[in-house]
Every structure is written in C-alpha cells, then in structure tokens.
Amino acid sequence: MTTLSPSGDRPGLHVSKPSPSTPATASAVCHCGASATAEGDAQVGALVAGWNANHGSAHNSGGTR
Known about the structure:
This protein is α+β, with helices and mostly antiparallel strands and 65 residues long. It has one helix and three strands. Helices cover 22% and strands 23% of the residues.
C-alpha cells in the first residue's frame, strides 16, 4: 500500500481520524511550497479551512495566497 501523505511530488491534503475517540491529524503540502501539519480536531479544522481558502484549488480559481 502506498502512503497517502502529501509531498512535494504529490501535493495535497491528508486528514486522518481513525476513531471517534482519537484526535484528528492532518498534513498538507501545496505546489506553491507551503506545508503544514496539525493534530487535534480544532487545529485540523483550521488547517482544512486555510487550505481551502488559500491553497490547492484556490490557486487555480483566482484565490489569494
């Protein structure tokens, strides 16, 4: 099985929450070079919101960095 974690060669966002009682984790790498990690449900939610607003497809739809 291949890793799902994003990298410079494979930019993207990966979120994991194996069970309801464990904290979520996330990692993100954008093709612009930005990267971030988060642990905990609130922090992962903030990372996802930031990714959606400023990275990933936002670069292709006229979004700001």
